[in-house]
Amino acid sequence: MPEQPEAILIRGGTVVDGSGADRFRADVRLADGLIQEVAPDLPSRPGERVVEATGCFVTPGFIEGHTHFDGAMWWAPQLDPLPGYGVTTTVMGNCGFSLAPVSDDAKARAEVVKIFSFFEDIPEPPFFDELPWDWNRWSEYRSSVERNCEVSANYASFAGHIAIRLAVMGMEAWDRSATPSEVDEMAALLEDALQAGALGLSTNLFDHDGDNRAVPSLQADDAEFSALIAVLARHEGTTLQVIVDLFRSMSCTESLERLARLVGDQPVRVQYGGIPTLEFQKEMGLQTPMVALHEQLKSDGRDFWTAFAHVPPTVNIGVQQSLIFAQSNEYVWHEVQLAETNEQKVALLRDSDWRARARHSWDHEAFDFSSFPPGKAEQLLLSNSENDQGPVGITLGDHAAKLGVHCSDALADWFLDNGLESTVNLPPFGKDEEMVCQLIRDPHSLGNVSDAGAHGQMLCGAGENMLLFTKFVREKAWITVEEAVHVQTGKIAGHFSLGDRGLIAPGKRADVTVWHLDEVETRPMKKAYDVPDGQGGHTWRWTRDPAPVRLTLTNGVPTFEDGKSTGARPGEMLRPTAD
């Protein structure tokens, strides 16, 4: 049975209510899963637990605005490390990737997993082993999740355009436009999802797979998009989320202009990712036109929101699970990723012909902004050895120079010597932090985009929300606590029409976190061996120790307290609502 909410009085804290308004001193009373009272000096009641919050902030539970826990929630329902970072809600089904709807055709169903697994760097086996797959339509998926999956945080999800295309067109979704009858079927599947409470439709006008194929949603013509947008227009509070190309074909402005034209004056909110915030994107000339288009859309009264991340990508790459090689146009090294067995990977890394192709690709094919061209590869850090053979803690450039070999050969030898579970750290891309601060304050932006739940052997997006308090508030004073709270609570809840939460106010859901500014940190990444590998064992992912917050309450139930997760799983599947 789900845990029952407690009657709690949070006493003596400083409330930052999530609206962006100034902080104020107040007690907060919770009962029946709701915030009952917010006022100074509330008397305690019989049977009510009192939580002392003197010196602490009392805020809404934090919302992760862009995650990929769609699979992991089934085999890791604690959503570690989110409770220790005050998170009470996650948004899934992003980037066109969702696990519903699905076709009865086994090959098309498997393709949904393969696409999701490749682009989000999540092992395939647990998708097939841990999920019941007792659904076709999104409404059936929702019922299955609510019936079978209890998690520590609330969750809401988009219906993915890629999944919808595969459900209707099968494998031909990769290759062609849809027929009018197929478009009608897609519209019916989206209608089913929105009626069942999906946040909207997510789509993808950017990604290419490991064979450099454009994802199925890039095959959608204007007629298909127009039909799906018309369905969204009938459902108030839903969103069209789209990922646009910010560095491959650099078609971001064209894609955004296309969507603006297709939406027209229909009441559809569009969230796009987004205004570039990395220095290399700014230097490539992408930022200025996207900012101009964003401002024009706002000036025209259009309901278009840019998503953004406040953290630069700092990732680890290896030869077991990583999107980085393919996304860097380094497809020769990506061949090692695609090799199905460790024996095949070792054979490639040792093969002289492969090594010659890899050196050429490294020097001449990899994108200039990536971490592989000459002058940049030398900065890669040999960081995590599986067998401690080493060396570690030095750059690939220094290691290659010591050996007197090309960086590609030095990296191949390092993996062979240290084990195929070893990883190399990419230096973080430079971040335009002035632009990040502007976007935090922009009324049409969606922040706290982390990709948490994805890329488990590359990064740990979960917990990066604390940087808004540590770096942006405490260390640099770039923004206020009120702004840092608003951008990951009330603002996100309002964007997704989650009207019953995101604020500390009577009648709102009791998603609350209590924390002390001097105690929280974004803890270093560490390995957790808890991802099922499909062979009876487990592989690893990156996680973090708790921040820690003092208390996290989801629907009035403590999920983190006394420095550790409680094990409670009170999360509910949310739907857009005006209340």
Word description of this protein:
The protein has a seven-stranded mixed sheet with strand order 3-2-7-23-26-27-28, with no helix packed on it. The protein has a six-stranded parallel sheet with strand order 12-13-14-15-16-21. Helices cover 32% and strands 19% of the residues. The protein is globular, with a radius of gyration of 24 Å. By secondary structure, it is of the alpha/beta class. It has a domain at 327-425. The chain contains 20 helices and 28 strands.
Q: Main sheet, how many strands, which sense, barrel?
A: 7 strands, mixed
How is the quaternary structure best described? single chain
- Low-pLDDT parts are none
User: What's the rounded overall pLDDT mean?
Assistant: 94
Radius of gyration: 24 Å
Fraction of residues in H or I helices:
25-40%
Instruction: Please report which band the strand proportion falls in: under 5%, 5-15%, 15-25%, 25-35%, 35-45% or over 45%.
Output: 15-25%
Give the strand tally.
Answer: 28
| Helical run tally | 20
Shape: globular
Distance between the termini: 27 Å
Structural class: alpha/beta
Strand adjacency order, main sheet = 3-2-7-23-26-27-28
